[in-house]
Design goal:
alpha/beta; Rossmann fold; three-stranded parallel sheet; globular
Length: about 290
């Protein structure tokens, strides 16, 4: 029997509809809306595309959405001053600096300059610490999207054996910390495997829930997956082009074969990807509500 496919597009749309309703209600009551600024340095085509997606989504949801584009030759000092300006602006609740930055700018210094209470990406060391101790203000967007897909897809997370493939700061580490906390959509037993793991499949075959962020196409094959497991594929790998000239994408999971064994599975594209910007919008709404004392 083939797995139930969890559509990230559908779940993301569901959450966006919920956000829009709440934003409209808050606007009526408080005569203000969430404010999100995205700072873009230079004109890297991929960065421009990401930023446009974020600003357009924010506008659709009724946010005050600002795209602040700066030239490639902005100095580190000028960029830090710009971040500071938005930190102090009460109408702005989320501050993003799009990476990568030019080589003459220290990315860590800039990201660490963002007010942790406006760090809606959730990567400031203060927010990483809050996450680890179970007091997250903002959950990093991709892991938060994974958790929503599991919950809304009907996976039983509490008490589950979860195996996370990959230990990056963006996915592996935060999702591990999120899923073993006490609370809804969590309370699992979590194992992390990585390039230093001697027998990866010995662990993956035990997983009730398998979260794969390996960065390698089809790294997880059907023989590595337990019958009836829920499989979340975070990987996006370009593996050529379609006849129409579009990028051909594969996940980190051998989708066609694994879906015959799994109970739930996310596709690539259309799985985890659409959730990331949606959870960014949710974090900005959280920041806005915090500013109102709600």
């Amino acid at each position: 029997m083939s797995a139930k496919v969890i559509s990230g597009k559908e779940v993301a749309q569901q959450i966006r509809s919920e956000i829009k309703v709440e934003v409209d209600q808050l606007k009526e009551k408080h005569n203000a809306v969430p404010g999100l600024v995205t700072i873009l340095v230079g004109e890297n085509p991929a960065s421009v595309s990401y930023v446009t997606g974020k600003t357009n989504t924010a506008k659709e949801l009724g946010y005050n959405s600002i795209q602040d584009t700066q030239s490639e030759d902005i100095t580190e000092e000028q960029l830090l001053a710009l971040v500071d300006k938005y930190n102090k602006d009460d109408s702005i609740h989320g501050v993003l600096v799009q990476l990568p930055l030019p080589k003459h700018i220290d990315s860590s210094k800039v990201l660490n300059a963002i007010d942790p209470d406006k760090d809606v990406d959730g990567f400031h060391p203060v927010n990483v610490g809050r996450l680890v101790v179970g007091e997250a203000l903002f959950k990093p967007c991709t892991p938060a999207g994974i958790q929503e897909l599991l919950v809304r897809g009907g996976a039983q997370v509490s008490g589950a054996e979860v195996v996370v493939v990959g230990r990056s700061n963006i996915v592996g580490k935060p999702i591990t910390n999120m899923l073993f906390q006490k609370g809804e959509g969590a309370n699992a037993t979590v194992t992390v495997v990585h390039t230093g793991t001697k027998d990866m499949s010995a662990h993956t075959k035990r997983a009730d829930i398998l979260i794969v962020a390996a960065g390698k196409p089809k790294a997880i094959t059907a023989d590595m997956v337990k019958e009836g497991a829920a499989v979340i594929d975070v990987g996006v790998n370009r593996v050529g082009t379609t006849p129409e000239g579009k990028a051909k994408l594969n996940g980190d999971v051998d989708y066609e074969n694994v879906k015959e064994k799994a109970s739930l599975i996310t596709p690539v594209p259309g799985g985890v990807g659409p959730m990331t910007i949606t959870m960014l919008m949710k974090n900005t709404l959280v920041s806005y509500k915090n500013s109102l004392g709600l």
